[in-house]
Amino acid sequence: MFKEIDLKQIEEHPLDLKDVKYQIEKFKSGFPPTQLALAATPEKGIMELTKDSAKEYVKYYENNLGKINLVKFVPASGAATRMFKTLFGFLNDYSGSDADYEKMKEDQSSGSVFTFFKKLEEFAFYDDLKEAYKNATGEPLEEAHLKHKFTEILEALLLEKGLDYGSLPKGLLKFHSYEGTDRTPVEEHMVEGAQYAKDANGNVKIHFTVSPDHKAKFEKHVAEVQSKYEQEYGVKISVSYSVQKPSTDTIAVDLNNEPFRNEDGSLLFRPAGHGALLENLNDIDADVVFLKNIDNVVPDHLKDETILYKKVIAGILLKYSAKIKNALESLQSGTGISEASGLLAELGLEPGKAFLDKSDGEKVTYLKEKLNRPFRVCGMVKSDGDPGGGPFWVRAKDGSKSLQVVETAQIDLTDADQKKVFNQATHFNPVDVVCMLKDKSGKKFDLLKYRDPDTGFITQKSKDGKDLKAQELPGLWNGAMADWNTIFVEVPPITFNPVKSVNDLLKLEHQGAL
What we know:
Layout (H helix, E strand, L loop, with lengths): L3 H9 L4 H13 L6 E4 L6 E2 L3 H13 L6 E6 L9 H9 L4 H9 L6 H6 L7 H12 L3 H6 L3 H9 L17 E3 L2 E3 L1 H12 L6 E8 L4 H19 L2 E8 L6 E2 L17 E2 L7 H5 L5 E5 L10 H30 L4 H10 L2 E2 L9 H12 L3 E8 L7 E6 L5 E6 L9 H8 L3 E2 L3 E5 L20 E7 L2 E7 L12 E6 L24
Parallel strand pairs: 2-19, 3-6, 3-10, 6-7, 12-19
Antiparallel strand pairs: 1-13, 4-5, 8-9, 10-16, 11-14, 12-15, 12-16, 13-14, 17-18
Helix pairs in contact: 3-13, 4-9, 7-9, 10-11, 13-14, 13-15, 14-15
């Protein structure tokens, strides 16, 4: 299968030959579907909070800030290309003819190209676009707009000769307008961090995962704005970066599951999705890590709920971490089996029937192992037809059930029973996570040991006109955290406002004060 030159390429990547062979076997065998036991709902598996209980958790979090090291972890490596997919398609197809213009006018939906141009002035990047267009053509953007020079306008927005928004990362695009200024997602995360991820000494640590191509641009942007927010919020902001490690790349195969080869005969390795960022998270030295995607930000007038519930779920994390520590200390003396079992159920793990037949000594060993794991609290939003992963109880081979975030692609929806459970889901995953990465003695967990390798994904792609199959590692908040202790908490919908398409920025949630 592999030539001598292939082995050298694998070694230099650097990849482990054993892992590459395992990946090829998974292409052949496929990944087993996740076995849903039941949907996690407020009746079983999702914590609902009263206003009073939410306040108590906030208070608990704030009272314990002096004891913990915090980091805000933001995956931000993806380019914004998909955000402009519709505009790129229009740019390639639009000829400027009257017929094409009439065709464009036919679709006036909220996500259409027509709506994009109709509301062009409402985008935070409008003033920059005006300047870029004038510099490129000598003509005012307003005149070009009236003349329907849509192709030229999009080139000024998307291509390198203009603002280059089509290839920049989302984190560096202007999302929100304020009086006299605009903000990128990077800036919004700084503002958020200053209000909920500030330690007792006023330090805010933010870690962005970025692509190597964009790291310098992130550093330049942060250097330009950092002091502004430090002064405004009275904090000290420390920003660090990491890139997705080449050692996490996966091999691509052709449709016959043979290694895919580039035009020069070399093997093709591809980034393995956000699950590869588990390595980056594993390198973070902190007790508590807030995890949230780069594009899920809102303007200041909508931040209150986000800030409140970040503190709420962090308070839950800290309170239950204390309970875990107490339970482990009781188990150390051979007592507290019943209490520890009840706590483990609250942490999203119900042992199989075999647990009941174990001796007390065996139960203690089992409970100590399961309680002493990485721990996460995840916000969950009521479902409104949104795509993506959701909260479920998943059945393992040993008969145990555990709380998991499961993607649709992991489920066999041709199985009537599985589809029934899937359809009973009431909430979805907005990627609103707070993690405890150290044990009760302050020792870091090795997060790679708590990943389920059988929860990867296989997708079909193409390169150089040839079809190929690609493989993604278990998703960062899916299979990569499959063996973590987990609590799901209902959070308000306003805390979830991602920008998947450029026209999402026209929604009220991303515009000025309502």
